[in-house]
Design brief:
Nucleotidyltransferase, domain 5; 6 helices; 191 residues; alpha/beta; 38% helix; 5-stranded mixed β-sheet
Length: 191
């Protein structure tokens, strides 16, 4: 299916997050405003494209976007407010970092806490339907991957450079063998 702009009459930011289902590391959200007429036939939900293509798309988005905001909420805050609220907070932080104030927000998923003075629309599986949400998906995922690769240097036993903190068999086995780190989400089922 070809992705399309959500609404062309607004200065609109697409928002998405990465890392909700992970056992370790932050949740990262991005808000992206694409220029009118932007197209990229290879752009899609970050989960549906290869790592190589994600990185190529990131370069294109960073070069051509009107504005990009990134929000990061660490594992300590996730523990305090829960992963859903942390994801929504990360989106708010990302929106606040845009250097252009959008007149509309389009959010991947079915939940969002209204952002002051900006209308929003939630779109389930929006990262596979609309260019600006797909772009946010790419930026959030690649930014989070970079963070996990860096954290992996401090904690090489957990293979975060490969699994990015997701609950793979290898990651769970490492938790059983070495215990948890300060970057693990202690309220999650870790083994």
């Amino acid at each position: 299916m070809k992705l399309k702009p959500y609404l062309t009459t607004f200065t609109e930011a697409g928002c998405d997050e990465a890392g909700r289902g992970c056992l370790a590391g932050p949740v990262v959200a991005a808000a992206v405003i694409l220029p009118k007429g932007y197209t990229n036939k290879r752009l899609n939900d970050s989960k549906k494209v290869s790592k190589k293509l994600r990185n190529e798309l990131r370069i294109d988005i960073e070069k051509k976007a009107i504005s990009i905001g990134i929000g990061i909420v660490d594992e300590r805050k996730i523990e305090k407010i829960n992963i859903l609220q942390a994801s929504l907070l990360a989106m708010h932080i990302a929106i606040s970092k845009l250097n252009t104030v959008p007149s509309h927000l389009v959010i991947d998923g079915n939940k969002f806490n209204p952002y002051p003075e900006i209308e929003h629309t939630c779109v389930v599986k929006g990262d596979g339907k609309f260019l600006n949400i797909a772009a946010a998906s790419i930026i959030a995922k690649t930014t989070r991957d970079d963070i996990m690769i860096e954290l992996s240097k401090k904690h090489p036993n957990y293979s975060w450079n490969e699994n990015k903190g997701y609950p793979t068999k290898k990651h769970k086995l490492a938790i059983s063998r070495y215990g948890i780190t300060g970057n693990h989400r202690k309220s999650f089922k870790l083994t």
